[in-house]
Amino acid sequence: MNTPSLAKDIMVTRLVTLSPGMDVYDAIGLLLKHKISGAPVVDAAGRFLGVFSEKCCMSVLVEAAYESMPASQIDPFIDTEASTTTEETDLLSLAQIFLNTESRRLPVLRSGRLVGQISRRDVLRAAHKLLAVSPGKQSDLLYLSSIFDRNDAPIAQ
Question: Which of 9, 35, 89, 144 is close enough to 85 for a disulfide, judged by CB 3.0 to 4.6 Å?
Fold first, then answer.
């Protein structure tokens, strides 16, 4: 049975994306409408520019209160330092990234262009599926670590 072990196997490709220059309140409305905590920001060519998240929205609210002037575009609020990954990143590396960062989602890039996104829940779902196909192994956690070698590449079994 083919089990998901790389980002390309578990990433979501149908995404809500935002564009630079978009009205900040329209962007907040999209996050609320789609019940998502953030969305990638991409230019017209699909190049990843950053993430606009609920945390970014808090900056909008605070700035609007202190400046007494509502912001109009998302550009100044985009998190351009957001963590990203590639299609070839393995499951354990993805889990490690989520463990070591505050990221709730990882945009998946190919040559700087957005091709998908992985959430913490996507990683949990993939790990759960992987563990479900390994009954009787020493322990599920030992099995999970045993399918990867020191180079984080799947070991042929």
Answer: 89
